[in-house]
Amino acid sequence: MMKIDRAVLASLLAIVLLTACSDEQLDDIQTDIDNNLYPDKDYSSVITFPTTNNTACPNWQANSTITLRESLSLPANCTFQQVTVLIDRPNVELNCNQAVFNGLTTVARNKYGKAYTPATAPTRYGIIVKGAEAGVRVSNVTIRNCQFLNYSDAITAHIELKQNTLLGLRNGTIQESTIQAIAPTRINVFNSRIINSHMHGIFLNRYVTHLNVNNTRILGSSNSGIYLGADTEYALIENSVFEGNGFSNYDTETLKRFPRRDETSRREAIAVDASSHNQISQNTFRDNGDGGVYLYKNCWEFEEEPLTAPHRYGSNSNLITSNDFSAEETAIWVAERADRNLADFTCGDPLIYTANSNKYYRDIAQNNIISNNKINHNKFGIRVQDNGTVITNNSFIGTKSGPDIWVYSVVRQAINDPVNTTTIRDNTLSKPNNILYENGAS
Question: Where are the beta strands (DSSP E) in 208-290?
Fold first, then answer.
């Protein structure tokens, strides 16, 4: 008589049981699995709530948008629920004086798989910095001493563009630099806490320049803690802490949270997407979903939408220096999408390589400097998949699975253009010769 392995038998029984379940029962089973198997990082205890509410606080009602056009210092001990602050003028400072802005009506987010109602769903934004094509340029905006909890994106900045302008950017008759010159600039986020965002902590849209983040904790964002969008430039991110970002996601249609169930879907603390001349220094990166700082150029996603513009430039000439990275999948990844199969994306960039049904596009992240970082107890240290990277004076301890520094690209080798001109010197490695060049890289 044939013997069947117990594990195989258990799997077969599970399949039989699942086929007899309704869709609702299957959802319940998946929810139980998600909440028991996948981490749900909760940092709400980091928020300092006032013990009593100050009657001198503004009477900002839930679900309201407050337009702030002059500087404001809030009194102590303020709490606001589901309030958005819109800043559309230059030279405005909001000093929150440790006020708490909560994007939900509760402190705790819903567990994975439990839907919010439209009334209880997270408020989309905590702060919006908005520019326009006409009028005075929005600049020198400061957000200081604030606590944001449970928003979708706690802070965002963008410029509203007319349809003809968007079409001009798409077809190349308008240059990106023209929009950078009028988009919001010099936005400061100081001494703040951005906790448990359902999407991003800070989302910087295209063309916004000179973001400055200092002494701020960004913890538990479902997506990246900070996302630097295409054609953003000259951000300075320093003296801040990034932990527990990138482990989950939020569906704005079903109003449900769910885990990112594998490494390819998890996100990094800081995403640098076709953004250049940024400095990321003296920060702490710890236990984020996929890694610390990832530089890449997306493949002109959503090209089918008529008002989207190409990402013409890469993530170039960035400086990543004097940071601490620990417990990450990969501390720093240059050109993270170089070998990533993007067949499931709708891309406007030229296809450079196919393998069976897999599709690959040219990722660009060149002439970046990685120096003086402490990279301890990560799975991988630094991965490099584009040209001109300089890696100096970094120290590595306890790299777990791969080399401290790995320079390679299967796709670049396949198109006869291997990664080149990498400079590696004066690093302290976790073990001798723990640098790996592959696929013809140099």
Answer: 209-214, 217-219, 226-228, 236-238, 241-243, 248-251, 256-259, 268-273, 279-281, 284-286
Q: Which residues on adjacent β-strands are paired with residue 79?
A: 100
Q: CB neighbours (10 Å) of residue 138?
A: 25
388-423 pLDDT, tens digit each: 999 999 999 999 998 999 999 999 999 999 999 999
Q: Running DSSP on this structure, what letter comes out for residue 346?
A: -
- Enter the tokens of residue 336: 């993270």
**Quick one: CA torsion of 258, 261, 265, 271, rounded to 10 degrees?**
70
Amino acid occupying residue 273 = D
Long-range pairs, 349-357, Cβ under 8 A, ≥24: 349/299, 349/300, 349/310, 349/311, 352/411, 352/415, 353/411, 353/414, 353/415, 355/414
Residue 35's pLDDT band (cuts 50, 70, 90): confident
8 A C-beta contact, residue 141 and residue 187: yes
The DSSP bridge partners found for residue 233 are 209, 276
Helix, strand, coil percentages for the chain (3-state, nearest 5): 10, 35, 55
Q: How far apart are CA 160 and CA 133, in angstroms?
A: 7
pLDDT, averaged across the chain: 94
Q: Round the CA-based radius of gyration of the chain to a whole number and report it.
A: 23
